[in-house]
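User: Run a structure prediction on this.
Assistant: Running it now.
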Amino acid sequence: MFASLRLPGALRAFVPALVGRSALAMAGLAVLLAVQEGTGSFALAGLASAAFGLANVVAAPWRARAVDRWGQPRALGLLGIVQAAGFVGFGIVSAVATAPGSVAGWSVALAVVVGLSAPPLGAAMRVVWSSLTDAGPQREKAFSLDAVAEELLFVGGPVAITAIIVASSPSVGLFVTAGVGLVGTLGLITSRASAALSGIPPRAREHRARPLVVPGFLRVLVVLTGVGAVLGVVEIGAPALAAEEGAVAVSGWLLAAFAAGSAAGGLLYGHVRWRASLGVRLLVLCAAIGLTAVAVSTLGSLPLFAGGLVLLGAFLAPSLITGYLVADTVVAPDGRTEASAWINTAVNLGASLASAVAGAVIDASGTGVALLVVGVVAVALAAVVPVRRLRGVEETADQSGRGSADVAVAAAGRAEPEVEPDELVRGGDAGLPPEK
């Protein structure tokens, strides 16, 4: 799996992409603590945090579409600059504003700005991997490495930003987040592999890749919302169970156990040479994470629960990796970044919805019931996987010897006409994102 880093240009793109993505791992906590200190209210801090998260999720597909259309250097560079400016503004408000109402108002507005402008570095890096690797085991290993590294970022990022804030102030934490995000983004787009992805010229509206209308792709997203729901309940349920047991300090270790299990699962996934089709893999993994959640719901003691979380996490990264591979296989080249972003959006949406409901369920019936319910939901949604359709796309790729990009176009019944010069300058259609 680590052989992927020896591919020409891979390490030069991968390292800064990780640096930039670490800003997202730090941002949520930085926003929360900055607003809480400025207002003295966790309710207002939660509101700003929710505004950041919601704006990030809602805008993700459209940001990714812009990257596909305009290319990584232009689109990611602009987004990185806007987001860094938003974090700097946020830090200034946190440092100088004194009235809680003023802090809250500006903080929510700026949280929306930094959420809307978050560069889709994860999706962009997966497109870079696709350009550097051959479809099949080589690409699976690269995606596995990427997913494992991302999991580790979300273990270390919150720890790092907490240490920075404790040693200085929340405003400094926001400034650091701005700098890390911008440095990582600029580092990625100045790499040769990223610079080569300069965008795809606009085609006629009816021929543009739209991931959501690719047969079977929407069903894959529905399945992955179930995986996200398990993630959302774990993030609420683990601290809740620790509090019930009078061991709040253990909360971080429980979440770390879950993340460690996910990283280990991703590493194992990348080392296995799979014979099963993507559809079968997605079905088995998503059903397994649901069944494991049901089993873990019966574990009451903290040591057993921690062990259960390791096992539960072992199915998380592999499920996401398989989802990314599906997106890479069934969607045409000019929609790959958007398709990858939709995978993240589906998981984040499931996590957000589950988190919103989990708190009430846990208060009423305990963590075990919340995990039981979400596990059953995940198993039920796994049945929606379009196994036969995905197998057909893969078989077409194997038989024809074509790349996934060509197969995706053929599978969706789209031609690849050359763009006439007048189509490039036609009023109202000059490379703008397609209307929904």
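DSSP finds 18 helices and no strands in the chain.
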